[in-house]
Amino acid sequence: MSCILWKFSSNINTRSSSAVRNLIRHGHHLRGKPPGVARSLKQRLEEINYKNPSLHFRVDIGLPPPVVSRSTQLKERLSVVKQLRKNSELEKLARNKQLLINLEQANEEWLRTSGYYHIKKLSDHYGVYEHLFGDAYFLPVVPLCVNYTKADVKHPVYFGNLIKPSDAETKPEVHYESEKEALWSLILTNPDGHFTKQDQEYIHWFVGNIPGNKIDQGETIVEYLQPFPPKGTGYHRHIFILYKQEKRIDFSELKKSGPCLNLEDRTFSTLEFYRQRQEDLTPGGLAFFQSDWDSTLTEFYHNTLNMKEPVFEYDFPPPYIRPQEWFAKRRPFNLYLDKYRDPKQINKEFLMRKLKNVHPFKAPPPPLPYPNAVYFKDSVPQWLKLEKIKSRLKWGRINEIE
Amino acid sequence: MQYLRHCNKFTSRGLSTQVANADLNITDFVNRNPRNLERMRIGYKPDGYHVEKPGKCFWHKLNLSQSGRYVYATIEHFENGTVLQASTKEWALKKQLYKCIDSSAYYNLGRVLAERCLKSGLIEVYSNITPPKPDGKVAKFLEALQKGGVNLQEPPQFKPPRPWDQYRHEKPWEVTE
Q1: A103 vs B6, B112, B160: nearest CB
Q2: Per the record, GO CC terms (chain A) (predicted)?
């Protein structure tokens, strides 16, 4: 209704008042519903992203978290807190702002109590469950400690920290707590790296039928390969999953002999793998790191993988330019029309202009000391003068070719 | 979806293995990592209108709140909500602190949150928390976070240069230190 009001006002005599003239001059037209009635961006996004809960629900496929009797836990904790309150040294430290808690102890306790819920939230944020399992998730109940060592420097793997491929060249040390008779499988996959198929992952390491804690005694089904994120693609996730096995499983169909440097062979789908062995495997542990390109990867691609190193650049979407109008009022005509021309044609014209002053054998002319003070001999229109000054100052479209 | 254009052209080489790595026809590359674009500074960062209250322009934001007995610190993402949290209510912190809302509690909460941030790969987090007193509890918390290695300023979003832009800024992926 308010739209109609404004349109009607354009017929009003503009000589009547300056206020009316200003309104028409700035052309403020209310589009859509007025503020307060119209939906906010958040509300609109909610409506667009609405998912029916009976259709989109997630399934917990992991091990159950340890059940602790809340009453006994509360009793113990209350007694500990009472002791703390009586502790006068602690009170003195707290009062003088010098109390420093032991971070390792705090970390261990956190991993044992609320750690898995937090790690699950983080993994959701990084899209780990979405890309590996689809609609399933699991709580990483078994704390998994993975450490890469290079030149006596330890690079631990937590949940999303950055590790360069040069630091992850050799197998990491994996540590977790387990009973002696239990069997485990450890898989390291990269869901982001696949060159040809987008929904598949590359498997970097697979050790199956691990007795208890000892990774060395497990069957190496796919040998370890270092991460190789190509240049320009950004950060790739590399995810360690520890599965608990019910019984000894035969992985001979997935067995790859030798270092297996052929990338097609290393194509893997966690969802398919898990679907076929649902009854025997349960995911229990999770750890992942992010990896970026490194200069050592060039040699890796050339020597180890025997391929040319792929280099990528992000494909930005083209800029939004509003549809062209027949009569573009109060718009600089040269800048307006240039937006609708083929950019390659514009660059070609710049290049031709540049090449007119280039001699194949002589050196290029020295740069102008005072580019704004050069005299224009003939009568040059103002807009053309501005364009020439911009080219000399290296502003704007000249940077497309230089 | 993040599409990357391939720069180099491949030549096929005859090798005896099935489909050799060199024969892979690589044209486009899609990196599914949802945090990749944010990390590369290319991802969308919400801005809001310039007449609105500031504090909406972030990928990850730091929030600090206190109830009567405990302190809560969270890192929130603009889309996914709470991503990381730490509070003195957790038993891990409670059993080592004397009081859960004094300066030492704030400082240790900062240390714990910084450790968890680094472990999850969140090195830069936006924060618009200004401590009311320069030597108070909140200042201690922020100091602990910065000492722990978390940068409290996010880099600006890299927007690709339009052909008509005056200046061409350096691209973040071409910066080598």
Answers
A1: B112
A2: mitochondrial inner membrane; mitochondrial large ribosomal subunit
Within chain A, which residues score under 70 in pLDDT? 1-25
From the centroid of its chain, how far is CA A8?
51
- Listing DSSP states for A298-366 in one string gives HHIIIIIS-SPPPBEEE-PPPPP-PPPPSS-TTS-HHHHHHTTS-HHHHHHHHHHHHHHT--SSSPPPP
Which fold would CATH assign to domain A124-304? Phosphatidylethanolamine-binding Protein (3.90.280)
Q: What is the pLDDT of residue B96?
A: 93
* Tens digits of residue pLDDT in A349-395: 989 988 888 898 998 888 888 888 888 888 999 999 999 999 888 89
User: Rounded CA gap, B21 and A250, in Å?
Assistant: 29
Residue B85 has pLDDT above 90, yes or no: yes
Residues of B within 8 A of A101 (CB-CB) are: 93, 96-97, 108, 111-112
* Pairing between β-strand A159-162 and β-strand A173-175 as defined by DSSP bridges: unpaired
Q: Which of A107, A308, A339 to mutate to test the interface with B (most CBs of B within 10 A)?
A: A308
Neighbours of A321 (CB within 10 A): 11
**3-class DSSP state for residue B113?**
helix
**Cα end-to-end distance, chain A, whole Å:** 52
**DSSP-based three-state secondary structure for B46:** coil
pTM of the model: 0.86
B39 sits in which H/E element: helix B36-39
In chain A, CATH 3.90.280.10 sits at 124-304
Handedness of CA A283, A265, A293, A220 (dihedral sign): positive
Q: What ipTM was estimated for this complex?
A: 0.86
Best residue in B27, B36, B85 for a mutation probing chain A (most A CBs within 10 Å) = B36
Residues 8-67 of A with CB under 8 A from B: none
Interface of A with B in 68-127 (CB under 8 A): 77, 80-81, 84-85, 87, 90-91, 93-94, 97-103, 105-110, 113-114, 118, 121-122, 124-127
Round to whole Å and give the CA distance between A219 and A248: 11
Q: What is the pLDDT of residue A17?
A: 53
